[in-house]
Amino acid sequence: MKHYEVEILDAKTKDKLCFLDKVEPNATIGEIKSMFHKSHPQWYPARQSIRLDPKGKSLKDEDVLQHLPVGTTATFYFRDLGAQISWVTVFLTEYMGPLVLYLMFYFRVPFIYAPKYDFTTSKHWVVHLACMCHSFHFAKRLLETLFVHRFSHGTMPLRNIFKNCTYYWGFAAWMAYYINHPLYTPPIYGEQQIRLALIIFLFCQIGNFSIHIALRNLRPPGSKTRKIPYPTKNPFTWIFLLVSCPNYTYELGAWFGFTLMTQCLPVAFFTLVGFIQMTVWAKGKHRSYLKEFRDYPPLRSPILPFIL
Amino acid sequence: MASSEEDGTVEEKENNNKRRTKSALATAWLTFYNIAMTAGWLVLAIAMMRFYIQKGTRKGLYRSIARTLKFFQTFALVEVGHCAFGIVKTSVIVTGVQVCSRIFMVWFITNSIRQIQNEESVILFLVVWTMTEITRYSYYTFNLLHLLPYFIKWARYNLFIILYPLGVAGELLTIYAALPFVRRSGMYSMRLPNKYNVSFDYYYCLIVFMLSYIPLFPQLFLHMLRQRRRVLHGEVIVEKDD
């Protein structure tokens, strides 16, 4: 069996960082990253970007050495992606915040509102309902992170956790402050509005969960395969006929329901900002589906049927 | 086949021509814009000087130039568009932040809080702004015409070292002077209870705005210093990679 030689150069300075000899032809990039990590312990595999060209795309961990367009002496370029943190850690932290913070405002913990309101409860039943819905939503997200989602990437840059937590925790505190405020005004159209809002909210929560399960089932455990999602027996997944990322569609619907339920402008802002961000993500996902699959259903829109 | 090859090159030529007319149009517009803005700020400078020479006081000076100031400062919003459409090679965010802070000062501070219009700090930032803008717009104009006199280049990349901090001082002092009037009148503010379940306190918003100068001003100032080193001394600055 012919062995390969692998040299790894810095993508920016072109310095020779590592030389590996007697590398098996069927070695994967992942294995090469582990070997590189041994000689440079500060660069654990998750923060290594190995590429064929200094300005090119990162190679995947699963890529096999002998299938790459390299000679028996392979030259790779390395770029440091910076400190990394696992997606699961980020998700758990960013979702735990809203869950805990909202409850602090709900129970009117001291130093938030005037002292005479400490540990009192709101007299409006919609405020209790809103607390249940908000808490359910984030508890669901936490459980999905632990048991449902199958992540393509293991890690993301460390600075993302600060950015993401500021966003989620900040907005949660801002909306919780007003919903649980002693001077909160319930929705104008009263029970009708709240009932409609609750139906929309629950419908979209079930829908969102159904999509997450459907996407999970597309991918066998431990794999990173990508397939076109299709409607299943579950009616909530039939929206796949019209939309590429129905998980975002349902998420938008749920927050729209929550806005209607609480009639609170900060919630409306949060819904709007989330909508913009999810549309950007949906368009990106839709574009990569179209690029990867020739037979991608033409009727589908990224996030809103026929519109967006 | 020979004919399709020709078609290919004809199409290429058409695209190149389109690109050339677009950039000629962009240059023409930018030249006009910068000449107009230089003229506008010159008019402001002259009007301010005339008022002071004739009346001998700063009382009423702001009111006399208010409309011209609002017009030319607001028109500067198009510069964000220039960056967004790529006809000017500057970051949209940097330009956006600078123009927005100017618009905020003009419309939400001096325009709406009459009691501070005669403060010295207002005169301070007005003088700084006129000097900065006349230098900046004339620099752009001469640059586009490829006729840049060295002293304009020198002025643009050196005067800011004094003008920028002075301008910030003028702006901050003005906002600080406005605070008691904002508090008393409760302007632009919304209190609970209301049907939108939100509240907004312009007073605290202004305090946050003033505090935001702390992280933002050094960054903009350092950005100008880097530009200065590059333009005047030909140093190659390597920007931080993200």
Automatic annotation (TrEMBL), chain A:
Keywords: Acetylation, Endoplasmic reticulum, Fatty acid biosynthesis, Fatty acid metabolism, Lipid biosynthesis, Lipid metabolism, Membrane, NADP, Oxidoreductase, Phosphoprotein, Transmembrane, Transmembrane helix. Residues 155-308 form the 3-oxo-5-alpha-steroid 4-dehydrogenase C-terminal domain. InterPro entries: 3-oxo-5_a-steroid_4-DH_C, SRD5A/TECR, TECR-like_N, Ubiquitin-like_domsf. The keyword Lipid biosynthesis applies. GO terms for cellular component: endoplasmic reticulum membrane. It catalyses: (2E,7Z,10Z,13Z,16Z)-docosapentaenoyl-CoA + NADPH + H(+) = (7Z,10Z,13Z,16Z)-docosatetraenoyl-CoA + NADP(+); (2E,8Z,11Z,14Z)-eicosatetraenoyl-CoA + NADPH + H(+) = (8Z,11Z,14Z)-eicosatrienoyl-CoA + NADP(+); octadecanoyl-CoA + NADP(+) = (2E)-octadecenoyl-CoA + NADPH + H(+); a very-long-chain 2,3-saturated fatty acyl-CoA + NADP(+) = a very-long-chain (2E)-enoyl-CoA + NADPH + H(+). Residues 5-80 form the TECR-like N-terminal domain. It is a multi-pass membrane protein. Pathway: Sphingolipid metabolism; Lipid metabolism; sphingolipid metabolism; Lipid metabolism; fatty acid biosynthesis. The chain crosses the membrane at residues 85-105, 164-184, 196-215, 236-258, 264-282. The keyword Transferase does not apply. Its EC number is 1.3.1.93. CDD domains: Ubl_TECR. GO terms for molecular function: very-long-chain enoyl-CoA reductase activity. Gene3D superfamilies: Phosphatidylinositol 3-kinase Catalytic Subunit, Chain A, domain 1 (3.10.20.90). It is an enzyme of class 1 (oxidoreductase). It is found in: Endoplasmic reticulum membrane. GO terms for biological process: very long-chain fatty acid biosynthetic process. Belongs to the steroid 5-alpha reductase family. PANTHER family: 3-OXO-5-ALPHA-STEROID 4-DEHYDROGENASE, VERY-LONG-CHAIN ENOYL-COA REDUCTASE. Involved in both the production of very long-chain fatty acids for sphingolipid synthesis and the degradation of the sphingosine moiety in sphingolipids through the sphingosine 1-phosphate metabolic pathway. Catalyzes the last of the four reactions of the long-chain fatty acids elongation cycle. This endoplasmic reticulum-bound enzymatic process, allows the addition of 2 carbons to the chain of long- and very long-chain fatty acids/VLCFAs per cycle. This is Very-long-chain enoyl-CoA reductase. It comes from Zoarces viviparus.
Automatic annotation (TrEMBL), chain B:
One of its GO terms (molecular function) is very-long-chain (3R)-3-hydroxyacyl-CoA dehydratase activity. The chain crosses the membrane at residues 26-48, 122-139, 159-182, 202-222. It holds the Pfam family PTPLA. Its main location: endoplasmic reticulum. One of its GO terms (cellular component) is endoplasmic reticulum membrane. Keywords: Endoplasmic reticulum, Fatty acid biosynthesis, Fatty acid metabolism, Lipid biosynthesis, Lipid metabolism, Lyase, Membrane, Transmembrane, Transmembrane helix. Its EC number is 4.2.1.134. It is found in: Endoplasmic reticulum membrane; Membrane. The keyword Transmembrane helix applies. Pathway: Lipid metabolism; fatty acid biosynthesis. It is an enzyme of class 4 (lyase). Belongs to the very long-chain fatty acids dehydratase HACD family. PANTHER family: VERY-LONG-CHAIN (3R)-3-HYDROXYACYL-COA DEHYDRATASE (PTHR11035), VERY-LONG-CHAIN (3R)-3-HYDROXYACYL-COA DEHYDRATASE 1 (PTHR11035:SF22). This is Very-long-chain (3R)-3-hydroxyacyl-CoA dehydratase. It comes from Zoarces viviparus. The lineage of its organism: Eukaryota, Metazoa, Chordata, Craniata, Vertebrata.
